[in-house]
Design brief:
This is Glycerate kinase. InterPro entries: GK-like_C_sf (IPR037035), GK_N_sf (IPR038614), MOFRL (IPR007835), MOFRL_assoc_dom (IPR025286), MOFRL_protein (IPR039760). With 424 residues, the protein is α/β, with parallel strands linked by helices. It has two domains: 170 residues, 3-Layer(aba) Sandwich (glycerate kinase, domain 1); 238 residues, Glycerate kinase, MOFRL-like N-terminal domain (Rossmann fold). Helices cover 39% and strands 18% of the residues. The protein contains 17 helices and twelve strands. A six-stranded parallel β-sheet has the order 3-2-1-4-5-6, sandwiched between helices. It has a six-stranded mixed β-sheet with strand order 7-8-12-9-10-11, with helices on both faces. It is globular, with a radius of gyration of 22 Å.
Length: 424
């Protein structure tokens, strides 16, 4: 990887390191609730569930009565007091159902005086799953896969998920009563809304069946809904199926946002400064279609008028409307689209990557691009049209492969600007 691409990657990795669970778990454990509890149960779901659970075990040890987490990392280290189930992301599988069933069974055994520490991170919506009566798992998988490719954002996705579940949207919290619940959250959504992160199984939900139906109408999916899914949602619209618990209805549940994208960006900014860059954080809530977001960010880089060398940082989560048959993820698509804009600006390097280390259904976290890496590369436009960014970056050797990072606070964009020729 060439020099400036390597520097951008170092800045990204510093941001990821700052949101590892070992950096925040000790400060997030509710000491008073732990002291008062008769029994302590540790439950959790998400891409960071294993490392969060490891830190919890190291801090509480034998105080933990029982535990269960579900994660997507097949190489997750074993835990001594907390059971681990490996599920699938971003579409649930049978292990996700097993985890959902097991967690509901544990919830039914809670007593007054019990404390549930729930460890929540991105990916939980898929990893912890159940199906409504009369609905087949394959039907849910198909619907969620279609929504993922439709361009729906995370709030819209999870509004639908919460209303096709008896776990999500605060419903697990309702089942855990009379235990006290304290949820420690690693945020992977813009704005850090706890009701959206991981579909909020232990957090009150302001969304409704009406809103879930509206999402499906927006993306023209109502007419193709399987009969069982359609029936469940229509029952919810008429009140025959209970709504998710609304704000104020689960007073036995508390939460804290332990880490977020802004913390990662602050650490990345510090690293960039150490490397000699004048650094600006543009936003930690970047959203929108990946190609459109790439255009906005690349134009900001081209219009930059501050001191050089410079580093522009952004965090958030884009979406992709998949129409091609290629391979890639939203960050790879974002970087490729940006490359088309900066190809004649050799002083700009553009990196986009997911802090979880997994971008879409690929083994890469994202990609980095600049004019140097584009030299001798094939025409990027056909790859972009076919949603095939992975194979383009495979040819340029600029895929970023971190493996599972055991954390997840959305995505990061690192843009490095050297002094343009006109300024020299």
């Amino acid at each position: 990887m060439e020099h400036f691409a390597q520097q951008a990657y170092q800045i990204f990795l510093q941001g990821v390191a700052a949101v590892q669970p070992k950096q925040f778990m000790r400060n997030c454990l509710p000491a008073a609730l732990v002291q008062e509890a008769t029994r302590i149960f540790v439950l959790g779901a998400g891409k960071a569930a294993t490392t969060m659970a490891q830190e919890t075990e190291s801090l509480l040890g034998s105080k933990i009565t029982q535990g269960l987490i579900v994660t997507n990392d097949p190489a997750a280290a074993p835990l001594s007091r907390i059971q681990t189930i490996t599920g699938r992301h971003p579409v649930p599988d049978e292990n996700s159902l097993i985890a959902g069933t097991a967690m509901l069974e544990m919830a039914g055994a809670m007593q007054s005086g019990d404390l549930v520490l729930f460890l929540l991170s991105g990916g939980a919506s898929s990893l912890l799953a159940d199906v409504p009566e009369g609905v087949a798992m394959e039907e849910l998988q198909q619907l969620f896969n279609t929504l993922l490719k439709s361009g729906a954002d995370i709030r819209e996705m999870n509004t639908v998920r919460k209303h096709l579940s008896a776990i999500k949207g605060g419903q697990l919290a309702r089942r855990l009563h009379p235990a006290r619940i304290y949820t420690i959250i690693l945020s992977d959504v813009p704005g850090n809304d706890p009701a959206v992160i991981g579909s909020g199984p232990t957090v009150a939900d302001p969304s409704t069946f009406t809103e879930a139906w509206a999402v499906l109408e927006k993306y023209r999916l109502v007419d193709t809904l399987p009969a069982g899914i359609r029936h469940h949602l229509e029952q919810g619209l008429t009140g025959a199926v209970a709504e998710t618990p609304k704000p104020g209805s689960i007073p036995h549940a508390q939460y804290c946002i332990a880490a977020s994208n802004s913390i990662a960006l602050a650490a990345a900014k510090e690293k960039a400064a150490q490397l000699g860059y004048h650094t600006t954080v543009l936003t930690d809530t970047a959203t929108g279609e990946a190609r459109e977001l790439a255009l906005r960010l690349a134009r900001q880089a081209l219009a930059y008028e501050g001191p050089f060398p410079a580093c522009l940082l952004a965090g958030g989560e884009s979406t992709v409307q998949v129409s091609g048959t290629g391979k890639g993820g939203r960050n790879q698509e974002l970087a490729l689209a940006a490359g088309l804009v900066i190809k004649d600006a050799p002083y700009i390097t553009f990196l986009a990557a997911g802090t979880d280390g997994i971008d879409g259904p690929t083994d890469a976290a994202g990609a980095v691009i600049n004019a140097h890496l584009l030299q001798g590369a094939p025409d990027p436009l056909p790859f972009l049209h076919n949603n095939d960014a992975y194979h383009f970056f495979e040819k340029t050797g600029s895929l970023l492969k971190t493996g599972h990072t055991h954390t997840n606070v959305m995505d990061m964009v690192v843009i490095l600007l050297q002094q343009p020729p006109a300024f020299r």
